[in-house]
Amino acid sequence: MTRRSFLPATAGVVGASALAADQPVKRKLRLKQAATKGCFPKGMPLEDMCRHAARLGLVGLDLSGPADWPTLKKYGLISVMSGAGGRPPGPAAGPPPAQPPARGGVERKENHDQAEQQMISSITLAAEAGMPNLMLGLPRKQEQPDAEIIENVAAFLKRVKAVAEDKGVTLQMELLNTKVDHPGAFPNYTWKLVEICKLVDSPRVKILYDIYHMQIMEGDVIRTIRDNIKYIGHFHTAGNPGRHEIDDTQELNYRAICQAIVDTGYTGYLGHEYTPLRDPLTSLDQAITICDV
């Protein structure tokens, strides 16, 4: 048995024992971890998710909105990443608007005024609740040249960065793969979002580096993380291929990746975002153990 296969195997045994005993799992906590709702058993109530998350040593849930925040706080958890949109608000109930809703999001300058109001409101809400990060929506279907999108998104972020800096909330742009899951999406290579970060030049504008997506698009994950850690503010995990468990059934060595992240001095969060194929709580305990370097 190799060292790599031994760690996941032992993690599963430890996880099953801890789950049976329903005792808090001690973690090193050098890397602050969270999980999306999809990592938990399907249909599990939020209250139970939070109870298990706290017991397993997570600091919060990932991609969790304001409706969840009171329950998270009850268990000493936070939403490590919340949605902020980046697209203009939809029309209010009532008579149809005189003009149709604007197309696209902040990649189009004509949407900036409306999107700015929405973003400032989201930043304020997150800050008041003590939630650290908001995700900025970027084009899922690219209809403009890279250079134009980069320029326009940076221009928008310059309009709101002072509020984010003042409130202590970080705006995160997620990288996606266009080969398997998101054909045509704009943010499919690290360099594109690095260029935006450089143009905006704010400690509160960062990249959500999804390891699964970038393994598909670029590979060379550890080197890319080391070279761009200044611009990375959040991580997502999932196994490739398939976006399932991060154990030895897939090609990424998450223990080595997480060790490299910790070695950079990174102090942000890492969120698990996979769909489990086996018992979800045992798989989650195993994933946390693998990344608890």
What is the topological layout?
Layout: H1 3-21, E1 32-35, H2 46-56, E2 60-62, H3 69-74, E3 78-83, H4 112-129, E4 133-136, H5 146-167, E5 170-174, H6 190-200, E6 205-210, H7 211-217, H8 221-228, E7 232-237, H9 254-263, E8 269-272, H10 280-291
Parallel strand pairs: 1-2, 1-8, 2-3, 3-4, 4-5, 5-6, 6-7, 7-8
Please tell me about this protein's structure.
It contains 10 helices and 8 strands. It has 293 residues and is of the alpha/beta class. The chain has a single domain, classed as TIM Barrel. An 8-stranded parallel β-barrel has the order 1-2-3-4-5-6-7-8, surrounded by 6 helices. Helix 1 crosses helix 10 and helix 4 runs parallel beside helix 5. The longest helix has 22 residues. The chain is globular, with a radius of gyration of 19 Å. The N terminus is likely disordered.
Which CATH top level class fits? Alpha Beta
Described by its quaternary structure, the protein is single chain
Number of domains: 1
CATH superfamily: Divalent-metal-dependent TIM barrel enzymes
Rg measurement, Å = 19 Å
Determine the mean pLDDT: 89
Query: What letter string, H or E per element, gives the SSE order?
Result: HEHEHEHEHEHEHHEHEH
The order of strands across the largest sheet is: 1-2-3-4-5-6-7-8
Instruction: Give me the secondary-structure category.
Output: alpha/beta
Number of helices: 10
Measured distance between first and last alpha carbons: 20 Å
* Stretches with pLDDT under 50, minimum 5 residues: 1-21, 86-101
Morphology: globular
| Main beta-sheet annotation | 8 strands, parallel, barrel
Percent strand: 5-15%
Q: Return the CATH topology.
A: TIM Barrel
Question: What CATH architecture label applies?
Answer: Alpha-Beta Barrel
Number of strands: 8
